[in-house]
Amino acid sequence: MRVTQSMLTQSSLRYLSQSYQTLNTLQDQLATGKKISRASQDPVVAMNGMRYRTQVVEVGQFNRNLSEVYNWMDNADATLNEVTHALQRVRELTVQASNDTYEDTQRANIAKEVKQLREHLMGLANTKTNNKYIFNGTNTTNPPLDEKQMDVGFGAVAAELGALPDGEIAPGTTTHELTFNSARYELSEKQGDEYVYRSVSDPNKTLTISGPAGENQSLVHSHTYVNKQGETVTDTTNLQERQVVVSYKGAVSTNTENVNIELMKGVNIPVNINPGNVFSSDFFGDLIQLEKALEDPSATATELTGMLANLDHQINKTVNERAELGARYNRVELIDSRIKEQEVIAKRVLSDNEDADIEKVITDLLTAENIHRAALSSTSRILQPTLMDFLR
């Protein structure tokens, strides 16, 4: 086959163009630090890069979610710690006041401190973090406690009670509820001027109120149970009006829906506590009941001693809820550790897929440059002068 001058020229220019393309590719890798700058250069690397980058973004979002979770849980735990300390102080004061040697003025002074502690606890119930109420379930924009709707007295609901028809009252009919000794009572029956309230948690406990609504009413507490001998017994106790706390049902929020935050793919962790297990109407009702007993000179040491059981019940509920929160906190820490490992792995895999090996690129670039120079030199020798060079 005859090799012409044009064939040599075209072949040389083609190889030089390929050499320039190689130099351009290596220069792009050196400048960007990436193996490719366009998907067309390597579709497999491009597609894997999109998946790996999505994983890195997800892990980054989970890390930001963890910050929010720690914020909620740390503040909730600190608040429950304050609640426990305040309740323990109330208990200490109750033990002191239950001593018969204490005078009325001394008990009245203790009542003042109990009132301050109760108001402090009400403030804790309305704790806000990042402008969100953390003890109101998913309703984070409204305070869970309205102090003005608590301890309103029977006079505030007299009109409602008087307008009710005789007979059984369906749950949720009335706008108020009663609290007595760590229990909530809701109106279940009315017969003339007699109102029967039944415990929400134990239907065998009732509060019977006799007399015109809001006017010198008599209160009787009944508890029906089976004793050790297997006999059904009903205990009845006459109460004073100060021993029963009347509040509107909306005074303390009953929103117990969990605030869930996703920490791993498909793993949602509730970050809030169940406020009904701590800040409930009976929680504050017990404190108000104790406060009124301390202010009443006729209150006996036996009555005050009996209220220690109420305080112990509320302390135990708070401690149990804090323990449950601590268990979830431990799980969050384990997830945090796992996410940090995933972040390192995801970034390493993304780097292996996309990032260029700079040392290798520099070596390849120097090699390609030498090859290009050699090609230019050899081309200058191969392309011999033509007849036109002699006609000048």
From TrEMBL:
Q: What positions does the domain Flagellin C-terminal occupy?
A: 309-388
Keywords assigned: Bacterial flagellum, Cell projection, Cilium, Flagellum
Location comes to: Bacterial flagellum
Lineage top rank: taxon: Bacteria
Pfam families noted in UniProt: Flagellin_C (PF00700), Flagellin_N (PF00669)
Flagellin N-terminal domain: residues covered = 6-140
Q: Where does this protein chiefly localize?
A: other
Per the record's keyword annotation, is Transmembrane included, yes or no? no
Per the record, the similarity remark reads:
Belongs to the bacterial flagellin family.
Official protein name in the record: Flagellar hook-associated protein FlgL
Tell me which species this is from: Evansella tamaricis
